[in-house]
What we know:
By secondary structure, the protein is of the alpha/beta class.
Amino acid sequence: MSTLxxxxxxxxxxxxxxxxxxxxxxxxxxxxMETSTSKxxxxxxxxxxxxxxxxPGAPGKTEGPWSHVAFKVDDxxxxxxRLEDMGLELRKVTLGDGSRIAFFKDPDSHDVEIxx
Length: 116
């Protein structure tokens, strides 16, 4: 069986995105890397990595085959309240089995999902 190692997304402001994902989910920077063309932060997401890539000229949000990244949260109600307190607009959905999910935008307009 294969496992997911990381998801990489382009961001316009690396520091702003690191703060955002830290405040929303508590993700910590595991390591950083800088090349001649990019600054990268690797965030520990508990079993995988969210790779935030700042590259001059690269789009923040790209059009393509993927639509969002999703995170299962321990306390859905608390997370929903925290996101609303941060002024984030949530698109809330109740699934057929009664579980709840919500979508919101990160600073670069990537779609992020929380799952109960």
